[in-house]
Amino acid sequence: MLGKIQCFGLTGLQGYLVEAEVDVNAGLPGYEVVGLPDTAVKESKERVRSAIKNSCLKYPTVKITVNLAPASTKKEGASFDLGIAVGILVATEQVRPQKVKEYVFLGELSLDGSLRPCLGVLPTLISAREKGFTKFILPYQNANEASFIEGVEVYALKNLKEVVEFLNNTKTYLPLTQKKWVSEQGQAYEDFARVKGQKVAKRAMEIAVAGGHNILMVGPPGSGKTMLAKCVPTILPDMTFEEALEVTKIHSVAGVLDLQKGVVTARPFRAPHHTASVVALTGGGRNSKPGEISLAHNGVLFLDELPEYARTTIETLRQPLEDGVITVARANQTIEYPANFILVAAMNPCPCGNYHSKDLECTCTPTQIQKYLKKLSGPLLDRIDLKIDVDRVKFQDLNNENLEETSAEVKKRVDAARAIQLARFQHDDGIYCNAKMSAKHVRKYCKLDTATQNLMEQAFEKLKMSARGYTRILKVARTIADLEGVKDITSNHILEALSYRNIDALHY
To answer: Which pLDDT value is given to residue 196?
Structure first.
């Protein structure tokens, strides 16, 4: 007898159909899996055998051959367990084949027959739906993740016995009810109201978030750089459902999705340690999983102590900062992951941290300072829109009892500026903030009058800007104008944008 079951595999964020063909024939007892299976798929033999036996079903003591088609594609993971088990049961006439043809099966089996959750359910179901598949059977623990997808009929079952009962119509199970997604603010981070002083830094943070710009803070230890960075999530605009699905796909494949929620409800804030490797940051490894910059998609990537990262690690940020994607190329496959994030970076101006301080004396030698600052290349710094000095907070500011502006108040202005940008780019796919404008959009939306154009020309020559730097100044100025709610960019907007472009602490 032959049983054919529909399953799905994943390559990056894209799913592909896998047909599990199970042949049960007379011969010496054996179990063979073909079709480029990895170790996890090969080990399904023991999981499937024990799961069938412990579910009070008959496991055939004959020759079993499992072919995972197409044979030319590498099959990875344990999500094929359920499909293989059902195929064996169909081939041995323990399950009726009529109903089986309608469904796609996903799930890892425990030895007792229960279903374990599998990774990448959301991108798998979305890819399957795009290919015309609408009915699925998967583990109960993946129910929350699957319940946010429209246009599908999903049955989340707890074990192999329930699957057999459902397929044989001996017991009724209801499909999942679609849930409504609600945006959340996220974790309890710092509030701007707790940050004393640092008015310039707060203003720069507001501009960065309002326009989706990258920002670098340079200052001595204890000046509040990390605290300022942790305030950023509290002023980020709320995610849309489409953005949440994009983020959830990545987190699901990476195995960091909260299965209780089933979907990401707040913008990510990722803060990897400076010892993180290139693969940890960009993605890759044996299964080419997404890295930190993809996990920060549609959110914030915070890199504290930026020069302490390995230079090769930092330089990998160039492509995603420019293109919003990261290409993970390995020997057996090349995968592209989205990586559209706001970079918030912090660093000391020198190894001791006191170079260029108004109050403290630097103990570093010129060679040490040069070596420290040269860890950041010019091309990388050119991709950071705002650079600010964050000096020590004064005693008077720390003991000031006056209430500072709260994150909620700042967020109102950010939301208003983002609303202007969304209206501006409503007919442009993939653009939702000023930082993502192309050269065509800059020419259209960042027009300058004669006086402002002359000012920009003088700054271009004096600061020896690159073409990229010139464009990014205009984008930041456009954001400042949006925060003020005005249509045209003025000289004041350009001057403020220029003040965030070059700081003395980065030059020696």
So the answer is: 83
* Closest of 295, 384, 399 to residue 337, by C-alpha: 295
Classify residue 117 as exposed, middle or buried by CB count within 10 Å of its CB (0-12, 13-18, 19+): buried
Going by C-alpha positions, the residue among 283, 268, 276 that lies closest to residue 309 is 276
CA 340-341-344 angle, 5° bins: 155
DSSP notation for 377-412: -HHHHHT-SEEEE-PPPPHHHHT--SPPPPHHHHHH
DSSP sequence for 61-93: -SEEEEEEESTTS-B-SSTTHHHHHHHHHHHTT
The full 3-state SS of 13-37, as one line of letters, equals CEEEEEEEEEEEECCCCEEEEECCE
**CA separation (Å) from 47 to 9, 93, 142, 358?**
19, 20, 20, 67
d(CA 361, CA 340): 39
Q: SS3 for 59?
A: coil
Q: Where is pLDDT greater, at 329 or 241?
A: 241
Instruction: Give the number of C-alpha atoms closer than 13 A to the C-alpha of residue 268, restricted to the C-beta side.
Output: 32
CA 220 to chain CA mean position, Å: 31
The domains of the chain, with CATH numbers, are: 2-167 (3.30.230.10), 192-424 (3.40.50.300)
Give mean pLDDT, residues 109-114: 96
The encoded tokens of residue 48 equal: 């499937």
